[in-house]
Structure formats: structure tokens, C-alpha cells
Amino acid sequence: MRVVVVGAGISGLTAAWTLASRCPDAEVTVLESSAVVGGKLKLAQVAGVQFDVGAEELVGRRPEGIDLIADAGLAEEMISPLTSRSYLFTAGALHPMPRTMMGIPADADAVREAGILSEDALARIANEPSLPPLPPLTEDVSVGALTRARLGEEVTDRVVEPILGGIHSGLIDAMSFQASVPPAAAALRAGGSLVAALRPRAPRPTPPPQTDAKPRPVFASLTGGLGRLPGELASAGSFTVRTSVTASAITRTATGFAIDTTGGERLVADAVIVSTPAAPSAKLLGELAPAAAAELARFETSSSAMVTLALRGVALPPGSGMLIGIKEGFTVKGITFFSQKWPGTPDGLQLVRASVGRAGDTQTLQRDDDELVAIVRRELPALIGADAEPIDTLVTRWMDGQPQYNVGHLDRVARIKAAVAAVPGLEVCGASYDGVGIPAVIASGRTAAAAVLSAVAPEPTG
């Protein structure tokens, strides 16, 4: 069995790894248009320190990421954050991060201690269950529309937008409630109270007794950066990775598929997995699955840049970082105090990673690197009280790097998958579909690999 995977981000590499593990005789080739593998898992150096300039951690409550790290032989090099303390800059000041359910307050007392909301806004949260019940949520709605209607403008602008909008680099007034807050959306299919829908429906099950195995961390990374993981997968030797090779077209043949490259090469395969972002995937699927391609072409994305400063002689707020509300007037939307969050930074050196560029912002990222560094330096004193000449800087741009799960996203994904399923041996995976977190993206790659094996793998004999 010959399989070509287009795209060497973590979803494509997971698909290739899974195929090679479950079917050792398969000939699996991964094509990557850039010179390196990993996609949004990427390493760089500032002031001689290696660190992540893309995704820096994965959530441990989902097993996929932890399991893949173990499969790659890196379990002993897994690390956890040094602190979980973080902040929200909203209403003109720095506040402790409030306890919410996926960014939406489900308990007035849990938000009260952060000191963000007025008593009137806290009363809106407490009294929401007594409002006339919502009708059954049979169609998608934006997060912003629902929270403004049920919890008010202050709660939405001071809490929901900075947290949920910051996490997804999106605009909550366009963001799909069904895709962003799925447990609550499921509970509201019968209508009722938003606050009640956010709360757990049943007590959490009692965890099993501890064994000798290490408990799963809440958040995890790797010594030297999470960006090490793609390279470990690609270099394991169980499949072939070809970088600087761009797939330009995929067509059906009598026996499978033909994959043409911009270099004039043609590869043949029994199955193809497309793990590129939405826009290039739309181009590749145009002939094979035109309905899927049309849906993908309409996907919206946001762009951002990570501006990393290496500082000495500064005192940062204790904790791992902060998010900044869109209405606060800053270009910076989030800051990670990298050297306080992760072990391994030399004493006396502070790495501060600031994110700029919001959904719908077409101007900020047109500035050159020096201008972006200057903007961040100008805003840091007001945000965290730090004002020092950096000893080193780095700007990393992620153009169209974050897919936006806008209203109707789940229905769009269902239509895409139905169109792709009509082409046996063709699969898609990646952050555009079922979640942008690393475990969700890994799960997407595994699912695509399993579908390929089910569709085209030879039946075992004897």
C-alpha cells in the first residue's frame, strides 16, 4: 500500500506515524512545501536559548498528545509549567485570571474574586437562570450574541472576549458557540439557562487509584521545547519525509491517485491524506472533491506575529502570562512570561513572548520586524511595568495561521467530510476541522490514518 500525506504539520506527521505503525509494509511518503517539518510546532533561539515560537504546550486531560510523546520515546523528557498563575488585562488594569467555563462565567462568585466586574454585572450572572428560558438551540449562534443577550455587555467585553477571543485569536461576535463551547451547546439543544448549561451535568467520576505510572499533567511540553516532537517523528525512519516539495494537484487514476508537484514530479498512491491548511487544501481538492474545495475556500483565518524579547534586570508579574482585551486599546493581545513558565532559562534572563495581530486586523502585520518590536516595547510598561533594552529579539510571523471557527462551522465540516468520503482513499485532517488544540489535531491525523487503512489496506490472509 502506497500512501502520500500532503503536509508535515503535527496532524500529517501523526497520520504518517499511525499508518506506518499499524501497517509496517506500507510505503508512506510525506510531502512538505517548506524546508522544515512541524507547522505551528517550531523552535528558534533567542539569546542562545532554544524555545517554542509556535504552540508551546498541550492539554493533558486529552490523552492523544501525551500518548504520542510516549510513542516517540520522549516520555521522560516531558515537563510541566512552573506556575499556573495568569492574568487578564481588562477594564484598564491587570487582574487575576477568573475561573470560567471555556471563557464564559458560570458562577458569579468564581469571577468576583478577580475584581473585574461590577456588582450589577455579577448579579447578571447570578440571575441568568431565572430569566425566561432560551428556546432549543437548533441552529448555531455566535458566542458574543448569546453572552450579550444572557449576561450583558460588561461580562462579554471584560471576560468572555479577552479569554475566548484571545485563545482562538478570533472575534467572539462571529465565533461559533457550537464549535467553541460544545458541552454547553449540547446541553442547550433542549433550551434553558446558559449558566446552567455551562456547569457540569454530573459529578466527576472518582479517579482510579494511583499506580506506579506518572499521573497525566494538566499541561505539558518537552525539555528544549514542544517543537522537538515533529522532528522526532519525522526522523524515526518508519516513513519518508520530503521537504521543500509542494504538491500542486491531485487527480484520480484507474488504480488510485496521482500527486503532481510544482517541480514537475508525479507520485502515485493508493491513498492520499491532505493535512494542509484550508486554502491550499481547497486548491488540491478542486478536482477530486469540488464541494469540499468550495467549502474550504470560504474558511476565514487570522494572522499573528510572536515578538520575543530577551531581557535582563526586569521584574515581571509572578506567573505565566496574560491576555489583553480587544477594547483596551493595545496592539499586544497576549504575553507569555516564557522564562517564568518553563524551566531551563538561565538565571537573570527573562524571555517575554508577546503576540500581536487580531482577527480582522489587516494593518499591524504589514509593519516590518523593527516596528513590531518597537510597538511591543512601547506597550509593555503599561501592561506589565517592564521597560528595558532587550539584549536580543525575534519576530516570528504566522500568516493565516489560525482557522476561525465561525458560526456554522460544524455544518461546514460535516459537508466537507461527506464530500471527501465519497472519494475512497481520500482523507483530510488538521486544525481546520475538529479543534485547534494539539491533542485534537493529533486525533484528526489518527482518524484519517484509520480511515485510509479501513478503505484500502489489504485484508490479512491465512
Can you describe this structure?
It is a single chain. By secondary structure, the chain is an alpha/beta fold. The longest helix is centred in the last third of the chain and has 19 residues.
Please provide a brief summary of the model.
By secondary structure, the protein is α/β, with parallel strands linked by helices. 32% of the residues lie in helices and 22% in strands. It has helices at residues 10-22, 63-71, 108-112, 119-127, 143-151, 153-168, 177-180, 182-187, 194-198, 228-234, 278-284, 290-297, 338-341, 369-384, 409-421, 438-456, and strands at 2-6, 27-31, 43-46, 49-52, 58-59, 78-79, 86-90, 93-96, 219-222, 240-242, 247-252, 257-261, 266-269, 271-274, 301-312, 321-324, 332-337, 349-356, 392-403, 426-428.
Return residue spans where pLDDT drops below 50 for at least 5 consecutive residues: none
Structural class: alpha/beta
This entry's quaternary arrangement is single chain
State the separation between the terminal residues, measured CA to CA. 19 Å
Principal-axes geometry comes out as globular
Number of helices: 16
The percentage of residues in β strands lies in: 15-25%
Order of neighbouring strands in the sheet with most strands: 8-7-16-17-18-15-19
Q: What is the tally of beta strands?
A: 20
Radius of gyration: 23 Å
| Secondary structure: helix percent | 25-40%
| Most strands sheet | 7 strands, mixed
Indicate the mean pLDDT: 93
